[in-house]
Amino acid sequence: MVILVVMKNTPCTLLHLLTAIAFLWQCTACHKKDVDTPFPAPTDSLGKINAWVYDSMRYYYYWNQSMPAHPDISLPVADFFKSLLAKEDRFSSVSNGITSTAVKPTFAQYGFQYAWVQHPANPNALTGVVLHVAAMSTAWNKGLRRGSCFVAVNNTAVTISNVATIDEVLHSGHTFTMDTVVFSNSQVQNRGTLQLAAAYIAENPVVATRLFQYNGVTTGYLFYNAFDEQYDVSLLTAMEKIKQAGASECIVDLRYNPGGSTSTAAKLAAMLVNVQATSTFAVFQGNGNGGKRTYTFDGILRTAINPSGKTFSDLAARSLSLKRVFILTTRSTVSAAELLVQSVKPYAQVIQLGDTTLGKDEASFQISDMRTPRQINWVLQPTIYKLFNANGTGNYNKGIAPFLYINELSVFPLQPEGSVADPLVQQALQTIYGRVAVTETNLRHTYAPVQAYKNSAAADAMLAPAVTIPR
Q: 8: Cβ–Cβ under 8 A, 6 or more apart, which residues?
């Protein structure tokens, strides 16, 4: 989703949308007419809050036509909000600043993502496989790396019957222990018990960059883990180095990318393919009040706070102007990451490898009461828009399917980011060169008969922050 922060003064009067953040509405003041509510004006505090929620949703909500005609305003606020949601809505949320319908991802609290896998020898037992670890996070400092394995949490072996409870522990924010193991010649060897506390350090999302070369053709590789605008300098630097190396192909690894800034997504797209400042980046389709909004690259860039790449000419100077782009995805590829995949397609061939993305084809903004003194503490974040590219292609709520499905767990243990032994990278290089172009040494990998059971990174993707438009 896309997040904007909209200051809503009263339930049924004038709304002032701040021009620095309200690019979706393209106005400095949007006037909202009084809405006839299907219930008498409430006099109790709960009823007044729910009336404010109903009024806001009826005006902004993408599926406002499917809202119940006679909602029960006596329900607790969170329950009342849920009662208004369309059955296809997976992402709208509400918070009062104390409790929230959203849950924090494991990665945001401990700095690692994981998947559960089964082994045919014991199909009821599950092994946790670490997919990615943020450098210098709690998990990193305890020694966890991509490919690390664990079989128990808080001294409880993980099984199919208790995995939901184990997942709750790993999302709790509380200190827990995990029993780590290594697999050697099909044997499990204990490696020790680690204790992890929630203390996440923000990650530079430019995790890895590489160059692959063969027969005079240079391919750039970028493992990019979030569209975090504060690191746009790192992104521009990485792309500049790839361009200076003469890359004519590029692999963009978004397999665990939960989205983020729309302006950063536009910056990366402009550095990958041949577009103009006036080229369409995305189309936002709202309800009858929001209408249809078309945004150019330049229009999106004007919303950026970080000056790096805010001028289109800065991006053009670093652009690879590719005719095709290889993008690696999984079910953990979400929101702005999906928007990048879609926004590039009108201007270049996208060869998507891996798994189907999550399917967050929508945008949202936060609605809060900014009266002085503030009378309502609840904050709404409903779905406001559906997203489409310059060709009008959208409706990917079930995810964007890859050109070729590849299971990253088919090589076990997992390989470091960007390794030619990683099956997704390997397929991209095979397509580009007709062979695996780079030979790496001291990278051990074996093929083990494991079967993916559940991917926590994909579960975290459901909880991931929406695409953010800065204030």
A: 15, 56, 367, 368, 369, 370
Do 249 and 220 contact (CB within 8 A), yes or no? Answer: yes
**Cβ contacts of residue 221 below 8 Å, gap of 6+?**
208, 209, 210, 211, 212, 250, 251, 253, 418, 425
For residue 172, the enclosing domain spans 106-196
Task: Give yes or no: residues 351 and 404 share one domain.
Answer: yes
User: Is beta strand 249-253 parallel, antiparallel or unpaired with respect to 217-224?
Assistant: parallel
402: tokens are 């890859």
pLDDT digits (tens, 9 = 90+) for 272-302: 999 999 999 999 999 999 999 999 999 999 9
- The pTM of the full predicted model, rounded to 2 decimals, is 0.86
User: Residue 249: which of 210, 294, 219, 224 has the closest Cα?
Assistant: 219
Amino acid at 400: I
Band (449; pLDDT cuts 50, 70, 90): very low
- Shared domain check, 401 and 312: yes
- 405-416 pLDDT, tens digit each: 999 988 878 999
